[in-house]
């Protein structure tokens, strides 16, 4: 493939994006970042202030506490609100053996206020998946969420302050056979949230309208609010607060379906 690329003109032209590691948390804000496992217990990472053209390594990364298992795996994600304030979310899994599920999971969040010179561990953190390539979706510089499908429920964890505090709730009424994806998080007011989700028809063979869930308490509890209809045999993407759809004619044929 072509690898990572970036555009500065809305997608008309593209240039190669030379990233220092294979996975970078692209936030499309003033600062992009990455985090990776370093030597010993200290994580390593870097920042870009010019859309990924150049990168600067952190002076220090968060130092993880001693693991509770002899063998473990790591999932991590980073996000910077600006050049000084950022968060690293880490989930550590033990490795009991081939084909076996982890029996011990440690979920941690670390924040910095001085551009990755010093870090503080926060009291709450979401738990990341071992396989998700973009574990945290950021709706703005300070509002983000993690969507996780568990055995019998879909759990969403939300932050509204750039990763310092997190609220976890369960999305109601989702059958266990559906694969659900988060599409858009809307902050309507203090603690007032809407989350738009869609099902994956390729994974489940079941195409359903996009579902909007509402939370009155920053994500601690959720209720199913309403659905957004999409035309049959059409894909959809969410841009701003409008649901757009394109048919088999191709992605150049867009139309607004509904205002979220």
Q: Which structural class should the secondary elements be placed in?
A: mainly beta
Number of helices: 1
Cα(first) to Cα(last) distance is 35 Å
Name the poorly predicted regions.
Answer: none
Brief summary of the model shown:
By secondary structure, the protein is mainly β. It has one helix at residues 201-204; strands spanning 5-6, 15-16, 32-36, 44-48, 56-57, 72-80, 86-94, 105-112, 120-121, 137-138, 144-149, 154-159, 167-171, 180-189, 192-199, 210-215, 223-228, 235-239, 242-246, 254-259. Strand 8 (105-112) and strand 9 form a beta hairpin.
Structural write-up:
The chain has one helix at residues 201-204; strands at 5-6, 15-16, 32-36, 44-48, 56-57, 72-80, 86-94, 105-112, 120-121, 137-138, 144-149, 154-159, 167-171, 180-189, 192-199, 210-215, 223-228, 235-239, 242-246, 254-259. The chain has one helix and 20 strands. The chain is 2% helix and 42% strand. A four-stranded antiparallel beta sheet has the order 6-7-8-9, with no helix packed on it. Strands 10-11-12-13 form a four-stranded antiparallel beta sheet, with no helix packed on it. A hairpin with a 7-residue loop joins strand 3 and strand 4. The protein starts with a strand and ends with a strand.
